[in-house]
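Comment thread on ticket #2218

A.B. wrote:
> Attaching the input chain for the structure job we discussed in standup.
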Amino acid sequence: MNKDRTESRILLRRGRAEDLDALVALERRAFTGDHLSRRQYAHHLRSASAEVIVATAGTVLHGKALLFFRRGQDIARLYSIAVAHEARGQGVGEKLLQACERAAIARGCTRLRLEVRQDNPGAQRLYERLGYRRFGARIGYYEDGADAWRYERRLVAAR
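C.D. wrote:
> Ran it. Output below, let me know if you need it in another format.
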């Protein structure tokens, strides 16, 4: 599919209950382990301390991101982000990440943190290109024992 056509059709919005099947299916396709369950997604879609952002083109889910917030803290956490295989390399991940930043700023957060597999250099390049700074590691963080890098970015509200 033409990159420019896909990018121009992508709509970012908050996830809804009717996205549940597509979210679970994307989760299974995008990750080999550490899957969020249907029940977890249903909870996060309703939760005041979470925000699910989806990237769609028409009725097709091309990506999703899950953010967590804690009352009284100025740090938002990007728990999970995934882009459908057929939409990779088309700017969907970057758009989702920017939408997460806007959502965090809207909730009064000044920093966004995330973990990324140490064996995922593509995601690391994206985060670093967008201004995320590596500040630590989590050993054996993932279900399969893989290690994670920790990243953070200071958020600035648009004036």
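A.B. wrote:
> Thanks. Noting for the ticket: The two ends are 36 Å apart (CA to CA).
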